[in-house]
Amino acid sequence: MVFFHLKLLPPRPDFPLGASEKELAVMAEHADYWRASADTGVAVAVGPVFDPAGTFGIAIVEVEDAKQAEQLADEDPVVLSELGFRYEVSPIPSMILRDPPAALAPINPDRT
Predict the structure, then answer these.
(1) What pTM does this model have?
(2) Domains along the chain?
(3) Which residues pair with 60 in a beta bridge?
(4) How far apart are CA 57 and CA 98, in angstroms?
(5) Which of these, 24, 26, 47, lies nearest to 35 by C-alpha position?
(6) pLDDT tens digits, residue range 72-104?
(7) Which of 3, 8, 46, 91 is most open to solvent, judged by the fewest CB atoms within 10 Å of its CB?
(8) What average pLDDT is seen over the chain?
(9) 54 pLDDT more than 70
């Protein structure tokens, strides 16, 4: 498995300010899409970035290959909506991950 960075570029520089009802609806589908990917363990982290130069979205994914990363981007409802959203997909050759928080760590049944 390898990691990829997916950068979601919005349809215009001032997005999400002034987003239309259709854009807001497709963004809700987009959030559901990535929440499902996180639930299956494919998406490591997903969210918006409020850069002063313009908002964009990121997803860090762990997949088999570049083809699967591109497929995740291509199947995102915001891309399928043809409202002007697009992804840039880049490999992450090395990743340092933190240990899960204690609340998420496996429970040791031998401890009392």
Answers:
(1) 0.86
(2) 2-104 (3.30.70.1060)
(3) 5, 45
(4) 22
(5) 47
(6) 999 999 999 999 999 999 999 999 998 877 766
(7) 91
(8) 92
(9) yes
